[in-house]
What does this fold into?
Amino acid sequence: MHKCKRFVYLFSALFLLGFSDSAYASTQNTAAQHVCDSAAVQASRISNVPLSVLKAIARTESGITVNDAFTPWPWTVNSEGRGVRFSSAEEAIEYVGLNRQRGVSNIDIGCFQINYKWHGANFSSVQEMFNPYQNALYAANFLASLHDEFEDWTKAAGAYHSRTTAHSDLYLAKYIPILEQLDQAPGLGAMQKKRTTKTNSFPLLIGQSGGSTRGSLFPLGASSRGNLLISIGGTN
It folds into this structure.
């Protein structure tokens, strides 16, 4: 009888411990799912890039369904066409480090999937590239420079991915439906889609070298990236 009670108590304790871990993980996921959008709000205010455009780009780049909502994920990494999402920045940073040790530099990082090979030199560290605000601000200023060139947000979004028409068209096929859905959301539909022309406040985007194009996050002619794999808490 006593052994039975002890077993019940032990089972209950283990169950509660497991529930606590699950609840903690759920809380982490809930917090992380809003990080990219919060960063996009700040970046939009500074760069004058429409918020709906930034949110649509982020979802096209790193979108995942969390708690029944399709949202960008801050700890997303795409290396050599294989995408992985982690539950923490530390895990994502470690994964990038392991890939760099193998000599891999074509790595996309964070909410807006900034490419390490072509843009990493414009950040102080991989950690900074994963910083949602820095990631979003870099993407926003890059989009702003593309809008100055193309004078159209859709064309700018396509060039954000690639200047190669075949690749940008595939990208826009995903981006446009997401943007349209966001534009129908309360508070975003009425947003002004025109941006006041201003001096480039992001000089690091000028004069990119190393084979990348001046107006794309990827080199001219690069193939489009593979679909991101869903992997929260580890790699697949």
About this structure: DSSP finds nine helices and six strands in the chain.
